[in-house]
Structure formats: structure tokens, C-alpha cells
Amino acid sequence: MTRKSRKTTKPAMQAPSVGHARVGNMAAIMWTWITAFLSLVTLVPSVVYAGTESAVGNGFGDEIEWWSLPDGLAQSTSSGKPLMLIIHKSWCGACKALKPKFADSEAIRDLSKKFVMVNVMDDDEPNDSKYIPDGGYIPRILFLNQAGEVQTDLINQRGNPKYKYYYSDANGVLNSMQEALKKLGKGTDEL
């Protein structure tokens, strides 16, 4: 008896069956959902962050009338109001912690009407050394007279003596605002 040899050949690549197509489509769908989810996760925080701070208030309160530093200096001279300057950075944890305390203080909002209010962030920080009387730490709050001179004696009385212009709460800011008005005059509410 002779056996016929059977030639066995492997079949050429076959088209995937319906089950395989479903797996391939399912993987593509999953990849699409994962990509969409990751895009959304990275987009939402930036939209939420952008919505929490106006370009003018920078998180320190939109109800306050804010000025740029050059315009604020001119306004202080013409109105007779003292100028309050907040120097901060967008990445600073202490600055981020102070913002809601400051913005939520009705007393600060009310008293701010007696000042020309300026806040400068990041690249808007002035380069003049007069704005760093005891160091470049942040946040710093300085008070200027109507001639644009920094009042180095108006400091956070309850703060660290090494960082005289650093504030971590609304009460410290409010106390210094009241002291500034006593020293520099109240200005007027009208322009």
C-alpha cells in the first residue's frame, strides 16, 4: 500500500472573520474614546482656570476697579488717591491662596474705592528696584503716595519682619489699607 502524500499548504492570509472585525473595530472605538477623554481632561482645567480670573482682576476680585501700573500712577496723581500695588505670579502657591481671601472680603472691596488699585502679574512686574524694598518675594503689597513713591513704612504689622510686604490673609491687608489712608489721605470717591 502506498500512501499518497498529501501536500498540506498553509492557506494564504485570510480575511478576518466577522468576530475579528468586531475586535478591531472595538479597539479603534476604545482608542477614540480614550483620546477624547484625555483631551477633555487636559482642556477642562484650562477652561475652568481661565474662567476663574479675569484679565484685569487676576483673581483678586472683579468688583474692584483695577488699573495698569502706568495708568494707575497717573490716576493716583490726578485723583489724589494713594495707590495700592499687588505684585504676584500665576504659578505662586501663596499668591493663589491669598486671591480668594482678598476677593471675598467685602471690607477690602469697600476700602479699595479710596485707592487706585493695581495688580501686576508675571511679566508685568516692574523692574525698578524701588518695588523690591526688602526682596523679590511674592506676593508683595506696596502702598505708594500720590507722587508714586513707595511708602516703606506701610508694612504688614502682623507679618514676618523679614518679609514686611507679604500678606497671607485679608485682615492683614485691610489693616495696612487703613494705615495707608491715615498716612496718605483718603482721596475722594469721585474721579
Provide the fold topology.
Elements: H1 18-52, E1 66-67, H2 69-79, E2 83-88, H3 93-103, H4 106-112, E3 116-121, E4 140-144, H5 170-184
Parallel strand pairs: 1-3, 2-3
Antiparallel strand pairs: 2-4
Helix pairs in contact: 4-5
Describe this structure in words.
By secondary structure, the protein is α/β, with parallel strands linked by helices. 41% of the residues lie in helices and 10% in strands. It has five helices and four strands. It has a four-stranded mixed β-sheet with strand order 1-3-2-4. The longest helix is centred in the N-terminal third of the chain and has 35 residues, at 18-52. The chain is elongated, with a radius of gyration of 31 Å. One of its GO terms (cellular component) is endoplasmic reticulum. GO terms for molecular function: protein-disulfide reductase (glutathione) activity.
Summary of the model, kept short:
With 191 residues, the chain is of the alpha/beta class. Helices cover 41% and strands 10% of the residues.
The overall strand count is 4
Largest sheet: 4 strands, mixed
Average of pLDDT: 83
Compute the separation of the termini in Å.
Answer: 119 Å
